[in-house]
Amino acid sequence: MTSAVETWTHNTIAVNGITLHYVTQGEGPLMLMLHGFPEFWYSWRHQIPEFAQDYKVVAVDMRGYNDSDKPQDLSAYQIQELIQDIEGIITGLGYESCVLVGHDWGGAIAWYFAYSYPQLVQKLIVLNIPHPAKFGEGLRSNPQQVFKSSYAFFFQLPLVPELLIQFNDYQAIETAFQSMAVNKNAFSPADITAYKNAAAKPGALTAMLNYYRKTLWELVSDKEWNLLEVPTLMIWGEDDTALGKELTYGTESYVRNLQIRYIPNCSHWVQQEQPERVNQYMRAFLSESLEK
């Protein structure tokens, strides 16, 4: 599945009534990585060995994905269940806190988790996912963002999205990566096959879509947000066709200690398309925070 010999190991952990699969490498403080749609732990393949030099890196398959359990009930994908999964991983691994890293849906869950359990998050790093307040604002007031998010509304339909994604050997998954990427060489045929195989596992596709069918509405609800005290780094590929850059503007109103690093000529798949730049920004943020 990978182009090089795997340097990490695979394991499972029982949390919140389910079993989650993860890969891990390194020793030290915990760095927990949460992937998005339609991915799995593999989307962090360029970050795992890099940060394993200083951390115990754990890249999890979120519930419903790849080799983790795939509860079929829609209620299993409400935000509170997803938050409890993350709390269970951190404490179940014997840690009192972590550096939490999330992209796309993983980033959305990371935002919510940092607000719910700030004492468990030393630093927060989110990639190409806006603060929930900014995303909800965008969907309520920006017709352009509504158009960009139209696929998410399509995903609300029963069965039809599954059939479309499965059609022609999961061609839609290949298109999602290749058509959105600025650097078309960022994804090898083996990478695309890995994502297709993960989505094709029994029960996975419906479970993956259930994030949109259940959690999306919680994510965009008009609620009050306090000022987040957790130091936060936002990394943003500027050529994201699904989420407009303007969704990042004003995030400092919700986060006391915020850094934003924009990466030009880079798509939504930022940590896979520009891994060296992403790793550089992450390491600088972590080092600066440690020095303080």
UniProtKB/TrEMBL annotation:
Keyword Translocase in record: no
Natural source organism: Laspinema olomoucense D3b
SUPFAM superfamilies on file: alpha/beta-Hydrolases
Full protein name: Alpha/beta hydrolase
InterPro entries: AB_hydrolase_1, AB_hydrolase_fold, Epox_hydrolase-like
Entry GO MF terms: hydrolase activity
Domain of life: Bacteria
Classification via Pfam families: Abhydrolase_1
The AB hydrolase-1 domain, residue ranges: 29-273
Keyword terms, alphabetized: Hydrolase
Residues spanning the signal sequence: none
